[in-house]
C-alpha cells in the first residue's frame, strides 16, 4: 500500500493532537517537520517521525526538499501565508482554525487554492461530531430560530507558544479569544444557520484584574448575529472568569427541536415534543483522530466529499469574527450581506 507522505508546518500543541493519531496509522508516513523553534522539531521528530524524516526551520525549504502528498499548517493566527507553498505544488492542505488573522491574506490563499483546484480542509473538528451532524440534519426541515453560546474561562496562563513567546493573550498575534477560540462556536452556528447578514458586538476591556504578561485582549465579548431569514444568535467569550464556573455551551432552538450542547466535546441533549422526548449523543473524545481520518482518506482516494469543512469555510468564519471586532470598535453593526 502506498503511504500518504505528510509534512507539518508548526509543531506545537495542536500539531501533537494530530501527530499522535497520524503516527498510529499504517497508511501515513510523517516525513517532514517545520518549526521556527528547533527544540520542538527534535521533540516531534523523535516521537512521530518516519524513518528518514527531515526537519526544517522554514517551510520553503521543506516544500523544496520533499515530495509530499499532504501538508498540515498548525500555526498561530498571525503566522500564516506558507499555505501558498503547498498550493503552488498542488499539495492538499489542512489548516488549523482560525485560518488567519488577516482576511486579505486568507482570501489570497483561498483564491489560489480554487484556481489550482487544490484540496483543503479546515480544523473545525466539531463538524465531524455525530451530535452536530444529527442536529444539522434535523434543522434542514425545522430551521433554527435562535442560538446562544460561547466559551467562558479564566485568564490564559501558559505562554501559548513553544519558544515564540506568548501569542494567545496578545491581540496582534491571536486576534483575541472570540477570533481564536469562540471561532469553534461561530463555525458551528454558521454550519447550522448559514452566514449572518449583520453583526453587532460589545467588548469588556481593562476589567480583568488578574492578567498574564502581555495580555491586551478583550476580557469578554458579546456578539449578536442576524441571519437572512431573521433568525438570531448571541455568542460570547470571556477569559476573565477566574472564579470558575465557565465552560463551553451552545443552545439551539428551532420550532420543534431544541439542542443543548455542553463541554468541549459538544455532548448534546436533543429535546422534542415539549421536552417529552430526549435523545442524548455523547461527544467524541478522539475527535482529532476522526477528523484526520477523513482528511487522509480524502487525500488518498481523491474523494473530497469526506471533508466536512474547507479552507473557504475557514475564511467565512474569520470574516465573521473580525466583523465582530470592527463592530465593537466602531460601536456600529457591520453588514456581511
Ligand atoms: N482545533 C482545536 O481545537 C485547536 C486547539 C488548539 C489550538 N488550535 C489552533 O492551532 C493553532 C496553533 O496553536 P497551538 O496551540 O499549536 O500553538 P503553539 O504555540 O503550541 O504551537 C505553534 C507552533 O508554531 C510554531 N511557529 C510559529 N510561527 C511559525 C512559522 N512562521 N513557521 C513555522 N512554525 C512556526 C511555533 O514555534 C510553535 O511551535 C492556533 O491557530 C490555534 O487556534 C486549534
Word description of this protein:
The structure is a single chain. This protein is of the alpha/beta class and 337 residues long. The chain has 2 domains: 143 residues, NAD(P)-binding Rossmann-like Domain (Rossmann fold); 177 residues, 2-Layer Sandwich (Dihydrodipicolinate Reductase, domain 2). Helices cover 34% and strands 24% of the residues. The protein has 11 helices and 15 strands. The protein has a 9-stranded mixed β-sheet. A 6-stranded parallel β-sheet has the order 3-2-1-4-5-6, with helices on both faces. Helix 5 runs antiparallel to helix 11, helix 6 runs parallel beside helix 9 and helix 9 crosses helix 11. The radius of gyration is 20 Å and the shape is globular. The mean pLDDT is 96. The protein binds nicotinamide-adenine-dinucleotide.
Amino acid at each position: 500500500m502506498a503511504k500518504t507522505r505528510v509534512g507539518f508546518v508548526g509543531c506545537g500543541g495542536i500539531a501533537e493532537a494530530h501527530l499522535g493519531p497520524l503516527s498510529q496509522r499504517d497508511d501515513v508516513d510523517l516525513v517532514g517537520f517545520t518549526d521556527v523553534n528547533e527544540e520542538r522539531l527534535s521533540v516531534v521528530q523523535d516521537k512521530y517521525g518516519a524513518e528518514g524524516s527531515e526537519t526544517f526551520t522554514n517551510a520553503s525549504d521543506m516544500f523544496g526538499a520533499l515530495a509530499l502528498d499532504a501538508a498540515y499548517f498548525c500555526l498561530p493566527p498571525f503566522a500564516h501565508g506558507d499555505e501558498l507553498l503547498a498550493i503552488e505544488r498542488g499539495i492538499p492542505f489542512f489548516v488549523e482554525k482560525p485560518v488567519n488573522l488577516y482576511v486579505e491574506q486568507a482570501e489570497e490563499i483561498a483564491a489560489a487554492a480554487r484556481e489550482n483546484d487544490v484540496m483543503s480542509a479546515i480544523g473545525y473538528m466539531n463538524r465531524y461530531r455525530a451530535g452536530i451532524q444529527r442536529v444539522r440534519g434535523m434543522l434542514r426541515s425545522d430551521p433554527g430560530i435562535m442560538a446562544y453560546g460561547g466559551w467562558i474561562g479564566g485568564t490564559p496562563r501558559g505562554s501559548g507558544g513553544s519558544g515564540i513567546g506568548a501569542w494567545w493573550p496578545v491581540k496582534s498575534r491571536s486576534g483575541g479569544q472570540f477570533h481564536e477560540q469562540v471561532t469553534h462556536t461561530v463555525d458551528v452556528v454558521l454550519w447550522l444557520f448559514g452566514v449572518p447578514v449583520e453583526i453587532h458586538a460589545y467588548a469588556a476591556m481593562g476589567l480583568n484584574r488578574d492578567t498574564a504578561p502581555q495580555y491586551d485582549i478583550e476580557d469578554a465579548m458579546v456578539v449578536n448575529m442576524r441571519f437572512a431569514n431573521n433568525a438570531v444568535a448571541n455568542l460570547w467569550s470571556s477569559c476573565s472568569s477566574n472564579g470558575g464556573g465557565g465552560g463551553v455551551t451552545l443552545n439551539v432552538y428551532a420550532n420543534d427541536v431544541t439542542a443543548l450542547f455542553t463541554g468541549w466535546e459538544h455532548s448534546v441533549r436533543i429535546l422534542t415534543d415539549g421536552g417529552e422526548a430526549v435523545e442524548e449523543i455523547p461527544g467524541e473524545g478522539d475527535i482529532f483522530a476522526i477528523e484526520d481520518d477523513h482528511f487522509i482518506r480524502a487525500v488518498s482516494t481523491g474523494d473530497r466529499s469526506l471533508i466536512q469543512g474547507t479552507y473557504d469555510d475557514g475564511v467565512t468564519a474569520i470574516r465573521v469574527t473580525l466583523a465582530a471586532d470592527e463592530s465593537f470598535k466602531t460601536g456600529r453593526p457591520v453588514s456581511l450581506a
